[in-house]
Structure formats: structure tokens, C-alpha cells
Amino acid sequence: MNTDENVLDRTLKRLEYDTEWDIDRAEVTLQRLKSDIAVQKRKANIFKRFYVASILSSVALIAFFIVSNVQTIKDTTSSFLNMSGSSTALYYEENDRIILTDKGLERTVFPVDAEKHMERIIGAPELSMYLTEDKTLTGQAVYMYALGGSISIHTQKNERTVDETMELLLPHKKFPATSYTSEEIQIGNERGVLTQSNQEYGGVHLQVVTENFIYYFYIYNDLTIKTSSDEEIQLMKDDLIQLASLLNYENEHLSWK
């Protein structure tokens, strides 16, 4: 009898243990399920916010491109109007460069129609302009040249008097240089120095001195003293002098404000 009671007692305890374990396991499973649901909700909210942010970013990017294109069209239209001469502006700036309008070209020192007056100048010059601190326009000009290469005009502010600068450019009276020969010439109302190299690979160049600037005229080509005939050397000298005489030196004093 006792044996049967013991067996029954153990059986009941086992059943009770299994029942409690199943309840605990069910509770754990329920908690895990709730936790998984919460995680999925958070992920869904994060995805929703990310999706909305992506849409807003795309809209902002499209708006930026639209505004940029509209501004580009405005700038292009403005540049076209300036270049066509329909504006009273003398110049406009584009990519850190100063571009002269038709009205501005009329005021520059450099001749834009030199090809009409000189046989060996080809086409209009390429101008690179800038404004000085006192709003004077200066820069450089490059002219294509029929004898090969180009004639380039560079400018430099004259910090001295004309006489002082000329004295520096001309050969020393007591100790003249032997590598080149220089002579003073007159370019209209301005004074100049024409120089010819005595070296085989040298060339010829011209400097014109005004109250405000020094103009340097150089010929860039393959012709040198060694490879040039006397006639070609004389032609280059004549062309430098003729081009220098076409400059509008009186326009140095014009204001570009």
C-alpha cells in the first residue's frame, strides 16, 4: 500500500513540475514574442522616418538644380546682352576674368583693329585685362603674327618718372652691354627703347614708357638672330614700332568705375 502511495505521490509531483515548467516556458515565450514585436515596430518607425527623409532630400536636391539652372540662364543672358552692346556696362566678370563689352573695347589702350592697319597681323587680339587699385584697366594683348608665332604686349606700372625709367632701360653710357644693342626711338608722343640681341639665339623687342605704364613688346616665334635674314630682322623691328604707334595711350587716364 505504501508503495502504491509513493508511486502516486511521485507521479503527482512530476505532473505538477511539468505543469509549472510549461507555464514558465509559456511566459518566457510570451515575453520574447512581445520583445520581438516591439523591435519590429521600432524598425518600422525608423524605416518610415528614413523613407520620409529620403523623399525630402530628393525634393531639396531637385529644387537646388532648378535654381542653379535658372541662375545659369540668367548669367548667360546677361553676358550675351553685355557682349552684344545692348548694355551700358564697359565690362563684366566671368570666371575671375574681365571681359570687355563693345563699349569697353572702344576705351582700351590696345588696338582691336590692328589687322586693318598692319599686313602681318592676323585677326583680333586676345586680351587679358585686370583693374588696378585706382580702377585703371590694364593687362596684356596677344596678336597672331604672319612671320610665325605672335606679338605679345605686357604692361607694368611705372613707379618712376619717364626720364628715370628711360635711363634704366638704355645702355649704360660708360659701360654699355655687349650682348645687345639698344636705341631710343619716338612713338608718337611717347619715348621708347628698341633692342636687338647680339646673341645667336636672341631676338628683338621694344619698350614704350609713359607716365603710368611701361609697355613691353615681344615677338614669340622660331626666328632668331641666327636663323633670320637682315630683311626679316628689319621687318620685325618695323612691325613692333608700327604696332606700338597704334596703341591709344591717352586712354590710360580713363576711369573704369
TrEMBL record:
It comes from the Bacteria. The chain crosses the membrane at residues 50-70. Keywords: Membrane, Transmembrane, Transmembrane helix. This is DUF4367 domain-containing protein.
